[in-house]
Amino acid sequence: MIFVSWNDARDYAAWLARKSGQPYRLLSESEYEYVARACREPKCQSRTFWFGDKITPEVANYNSQFSYAGSPKANARRRTLAVNAAPPNPFGLYHILGNVRQWVADCWNPTLQGLPLDGRARMSGDCNSHVVRGGSWSDDPVELRASARSWDDTKARSSQLGFRVARDLLR
After folding, report:
1. Total domains, the chain
2. Is the CB of residue 77 less than 8 Å from the CB of residue 115?
3. How many C-beta atoms lie closer than 10 Å to residue 47's C-beta?
4. Cα separation of 66 and 123, whole Å?
5. Element (H, E) at 29
6. Closest CA to 166 of 2, 19, 35, 3
7. CB neighbour list of residue 169: distance below 8 Å, 6 or more residues apart
8. How far is CA 66 from CA 60, 74, 112, in A?
9. 169 or 170, which is more confident?
10. Looking at the domain assignment, is residue 1 inside a domain?
11. Which of 62, 65, 71, 135 has minimal CB crowding within 10 Å?
């Protein structure tokens, strides 16, 4: 889904939770980075992307007219792609990097200092703006790095903005 503001994404997650009776919500910034890295072992936690340190249009949808760390250049697609147009990450998630930037629950803060250590969203800072992660089809590959973070106005809508939801699992 594209052209959705942070408010739209939050409201959708709340609607889905009410409709299903399940606890749906937006991911926190910490959760997003964890799934963007798709790594449970120390040896892979420093990789630039879940698929390694090089990027190609076969594994992510981005502005491939630009290179990252020697990655090959290609003609940019300049649009979103179908879910299965690139392989899923090791956690089974598609387009966690690229295709559209994804809203997360956290309010914008210029640094990660003060991020809750338990993975919850940070709800302090500039809450008129919220964090977006993952990069989009129009972004340079540097914006798709698992650690890359940006922000947008909470009311912003564009063809580069979307979201994904999480569901808390009951123990």
Report:
1. 1
2. no
3. 15
4. 34
5. helix 29-37
6. 35
7. none
8. 13, 8, 27
9. 169
10. no
11. 65
Q: Above 80 in pLDDT, residue 171?
A: no
CA distance 96 to 17: 22
- Judge whether 66 lies within some domain: yes
Q: Write out the residue range of the structural domain in which residue 62 sits.
A: 6-167
The pTM score is 0.92
Q: What is the CATH number of the domain that holds 104?
A: 3.90.1580.10
Residue 122 located in a structural domain: yes
Contact 2, 159 (CB under 8 A): yes
Mind listing the pLDDT tens digit for each residue in 23-54? 999 999 999 999 999 988 888 888 899 998 99
pLDDT at 169: 84
Query: Nearest 5 degrees, angle CA 44-CA 131-CA 27?
Result: 65
Q: How many CA atoms lie within 13 A of 138 on its CB side?
A: 6
- Please write the tens of the pLDDT for every residue from 9-19: 999 999 999 99
